[in-house]
Amino acid sequence: xxLSRPLTATLAIALVAAILALDLxxxxxxxxxTAPAPFALGSGAAPEGAHCTGQ
Amino acid sequence: MFLHxxxxxxxxxxxxxxxxxxxxxxxxxxxxxxxxFGLVLEGMRFGFAGPWRMVVTDRDGRGMLAQLIAIALVAIVAFPLxxxxxxxxSPAHAPVGFAMILGAFVFGLAMQLVMGCGSGTLVNxxxxxxxxxxxxxxxxxxxxxxxxxxxxxxGLGTLPVLSLQGLAGSxxxxxxxxxxxxxxxxxxxxxxxxxxxLPPARLWIAAALVAALALANLVIAGQPWGIVYGLGLWGAKxxxxxxxxxxxxxxxxxxxxxxxxxxxxxxxxxxxxxxxLLLGAFAVMRxxxxxxxxxxxxxxxxxxxxxxxxxxxxxxxxxxFGCNVGAFFSGISTGSLHGWVWLVAAFAxxxxxxxxxxxxxxxxxxxxxxx
Lengths: 55, 371
What we know:
The complex is a heterodimer.
Chain A: H1 5-27
Chain B: H1 2-23, H2 25-43, H3 49-57, H4 62-84, E1 95-97, H5 98-113, H6 118-126, H7 130-154, E2 158-161, H8 164-191, H9 201-221, H10 228-241, H11 250-253, H12 255-262, H13 269-287, H14 300-319, H15 324-333, H16 337-360
Antiparallel strand pairs in B: 1-2
């Protein structure tokens, strides 16, 4: 089995797009009014994101 | 070729704009950081799994040294930056434990079987490598599965979170980190053959760019560069859509993770950089005059082996509190002791994985050839 690089990459993007679409359909669009400041540094807010090192 | 390049610009700029409009400026900026990672990793051939293999098989230490340079550059800036802004920026610290060490060892082994680590899997998939695409599927499933059992594994024995800042202060921690990186560099140079020691200009530039992007990630997101969490979250989203009740699991019931699960992927830091990274790798492949030959075809059994190895890769990354990016790169560059333990365990696993590669990655017979 051998697929061309463009086709394989397109399938990868389609996989991510499908997950994103599924998520948007279930979770809805983010609320822009609660969007964080562009930069965490200087925002005065504690980081809220999740990281691989979290338990 | 014009159409290919126009489509690349449309896709990358379009998704950046989409993230910006849907989730705000921080989301757009993080997609751009991810794109930058993809452009540098694929365009300048800066990697992790490959250079580790080259140290062992070819006595070539140039790629490994480039990694150490990038980590050192990040550490020099990140240590004082985090110390001065502890309320806004967080390091990538995690505890050392039995499962963490086992996870890192298995991760190192598996990454040689799927020809890529955490970032490498995204780069390979985005640049059109079929093994990378299969590995991405497995990584998503494996890292999600790892979240379901993480509590049991950490219960086997885990130390408190230890950092070099905690042991020696911010400046002392940075000195210890740079000394440790120097020691690893010296070991790499001792192993490398003449002519395969000093990185070429390309890798020096790539290391500086990766460091700059990692620092941008820290300043924008408030946390270091990571990969695994986002992929596990994608798996959780799919499982939830399939009817799984993840509120019953300890990991996804925890406050921060429950919030991520209920919110859009477009608000998750590592998801945004992961998507950007994949698109960046795609952009490099499509921008070239020729996208390159298709990756070498393997036997069906080998593709099955890659899928299993990728499931293990994702699962072990969760137990190890990160992959080559979250644990090794970001852990060490922000002072986590677990990053150093991860390096030793994963390198040992990687050395074993190199020996297993010929048994898993078996080329398909050429068409028309007799067996």
